Amino acid sequence: MNCKKSLAMLLLFIFLMPAQCFAGVYSNRVVNFTVNLPETWIPVDYNALAQDVVFLRHFPGGYDSSLTIKSQEVDSSTSYTLDDLSDKQMKDLVDSAFDSTDNATNTLIENKVIQVTGHKALYFVTQTEADGTKVDTIWVLFLLKNVFYTISVTTNSNTYDKVVSDLQQMLKTFRPYELPAEVV
Length: 184
What we know:
Blueprint: H1 2-20, E1 24-28, E2 33-37, E3 42-44, E4 52-59, E5 63-73, H2 87-99, E6 106-116, E7 119-130, E8 133-144, E9 147-156, H3 160-173
């Protein structure tokens, strides 16, 4: 009996291993990005035509964190970028959005300006609480080469530090998608 169980576990490990060891560079031409993806984040294939990509990270205890990357092309005739705004102006955009809503279930807990690929990015964190569970959502908004990117990461407050560390590593390698040299 133990032999059958061991064989079943080995086969399960072999079949699941490729999906869980997806580490290295992840590129998506539709959403227009390339990033180094930590092996703990698994891409979810749900809609090849969508302008977003979702990754999941499983934590013990049954909670999964999700990371979504969305993109939207902007009018290339405008020379406006987030770099043109002061840090205060960028942070004021988020503050005013929260001041203008009466949504008491969503709290702004952090609001700052960071750099992504040498350009300003708006980074803010919101927190909601439902049934005694606190959930944090990290938002990163930035513009690169006429593409506006929105990255959102949703995680349980208990796993926040681990997820933020992964996000910081991913943002260091984030860049717009480029065709491989042999295709160009």
